[in-house]
Every structure is written in structure tokens, then in C-alpha cells.
Amino acid sequence: LIPANEVDICGLEIQPTKEFLERLKRHSNGCSRQYWSVKSTPKEADKEFADIVEICQQQGYITVKDMIREFGVTRYHANKVLNDLCEEPAARMYATKEGPVTLYRLWKKE
Asked: Which of 64, 71, 69 is nearest to 86 (CA)?
């Protein structure tokens, strides 16, 4: 049973024991929370694709993190846009997995 004073409606708050805090200090670098917000207004699909092409031409590929950093979009939006660009039959890009990162590259025009 969890006492009501230990639960916050907007999120879960805990009152850790001394033993837990000592163990956390020994086995981790601590906990952190990263706040973010969408920094840009929505773009038209053609403009967004043109910006993606520009980045791909500069470095040869684009990643989800590149889109988040450059365009200020959410991870969901970046994943959706890049995966949609890889879908057949009119795929404009293709994805390759390199380690933990997926690189999205433009199809070369023949």
C-alpha cells in the first residue's frame, strides 16, 4: 500500500530510503531529467524534404538525432518523416543500420 503523501498526480514521486540513495550513489552517476519542447513551426513536406536533402548532401546521410537537433522536432515526428521517405513504391531514401544508429541516405539518381 502506498501512502497518499508519496504519490503526485502529475508524476510519480518517491521518498527513497537512505540505503537506496547510498546504493544509487555507488552504482550510477545520478539521475537526470531532460526537458525539451518543439522549437519550430510545422513545415510543408516539400520544404522539409529539401532541408533533409541539403543535410544528406553535406554529410552523406541524416539521422533522427540530426533532424531533432536541426529542425527542433520531436523524435516521433523525425522517425515518422524519415520512415515514410523510405516506404515503397516511391521511396526517396533508404535506411541502413550501423551499430545502434540508423542512417538514412538518398537514393542515387541514375
From this structure: 64
Q: Average pLDDT of 78-100? A: 91
CATH of 45-106, one of 1.10.3720.10, 1.10.10.1470, 3.40.50.300, 3.30.420.240: 1.10.10.1470
CA 23/CA 21 separation, integer angstroms? 5
The answer to whether 100 touches 86, Cβ cutoff 8 Å, is: no
d(CA 103, CA 56): 10
DSSP 45-82: HHHHHHHHHHHHHHHS-B-HHHHHHHH---HHHHHHHH
User: pTM for the whole thing?
Assistant: 0.60
What mean pLDDT value characterizes the chain?
A: 80
